[in-house]
Amino acid sequence: MSSAPDPDRRPVILCYGDDLRVADHQALAAAIEQDAPVIPLFILDDSGAVRERPGAASRWWLHQSLAALAADLGSRGSRLLLRRGKFVNVLSALVKETNARAVYYSRSYDKHHADQQQNLLTALQKIGVACHRLPGNLLFEPEEIATKAGTPFRVFTPFYKACLALNKSAAALDAAREIPAPLVWPASDALASWQLQPTRPDWSAGLKSFWQPGSSAATSRLELFLDRSVGTYVNNRDRPAVDGTALLSPHLHFGEISPR
Predict the structure, then answer these.
(1) What is the pTM of this model?
(2) CB neighbours of 165 closer than 8 A, spacing ≥ 6?
(3) CATH T-level topology, domain 8-137
């Protein structure tokens, strides 16, 4: 067990992305292991092309998910810092503002976010700040699964067999009971100021009646699926009139639950 963190030490920043959870979060666990104050951060970057921005339904979900994550962090003595702007600029500025010594984040796989992370690594290297990218949103990293020739698979069945043969069965990480906090928190945007939820008109009633974003809801969905539907999934997954699937796709997309 690590010793109690010294609040006077330089903090580390945990930059959230599509991993909005506390449990089984490798980057968060690694940040806590540094025995330094941890500043959890989420950046809303609307500076790119319109096609790269989330749609209205995704923005509604993001608001709910961030609120749930903030509550989870709050119950562990921490907070969720919210900043808006160009990803690399905002994070680099916060590093200088807090004199942070390292940044931790989960690896992203789509080109836009992967490019952002690479640009961040380059920017932080120039100012001597460590940047740690950890896995967290896939069962296997893409480069772990390859043909005997070292190339990516193009057919599912051989790919599936290769995954089984790898037999990677690391246990999921428990959620930290306490997250070390800085003595003084940097300023944060108010979530409501981002205006992620629809207002005029508010068309989200249907979403609210069926979906509940957040890690707790994701876990409940999984437990319900395991209790009621997993045994008939192979047949009922192809029947739209039957509630035969896990309904975990949006929870996995926002990283509210680990694939492990």
Answers:
(1) 0.88
(2) none
(3) Rossmann fold (3.40.50)
Q: Please list the residue range(s) of the chain that carry CATH number 3.40.50.620.
A: 8-137
| Token duo for residue 20 | 């909005």
111-126 vs 87-98: helix axis angle to the nearest 10? 30
The answer to whether the beta carbons of residues 17 and 65 sit under 8 Å apart is no
Return contacts of 235-241, CB within 8 angstroms, 24+ apart: none
pLDDT digit string (tens) for the chain, length 260 residues: 444 555 458 999 999 999 999 999 999 999 999 989 999 999 999 877 666 678 899 999 999 999 999 999 999 999 999 999 999 999 999 999 999 999 999 998 887 788 888 888 888 888 889 999 999 888 888 888 889 888 999 999 999 888 888 866 667 888 889 999 999 999 999 999 999 999 889 999 999 999 999 999 999 999 988 888 888 888 888 888 888 888 899 999 999 999 88
CA 236, CA 215: separation in Å to the nearest integer?
A: 25
**Count of CA atoms in the C-beta half-sphere (13 A) of 13:** 30
Location of structure tokens 């599509």: 18
Question: What's the CA gap between 104 and 40, in Å, rounded?
Answer: 9
Closest to 68 in 3D by CA, of 219, 174, 260: 219
Positive or negative, the CA dihedral 44, 49, 52, 56 is positive
Where are the alpha helices (H) located in 106-170, listed in sequence order? Answer: 111-126, 156-166
DSSP code of 142?
G
Closest CA to 63 of 210, 200, 186, 211: 211
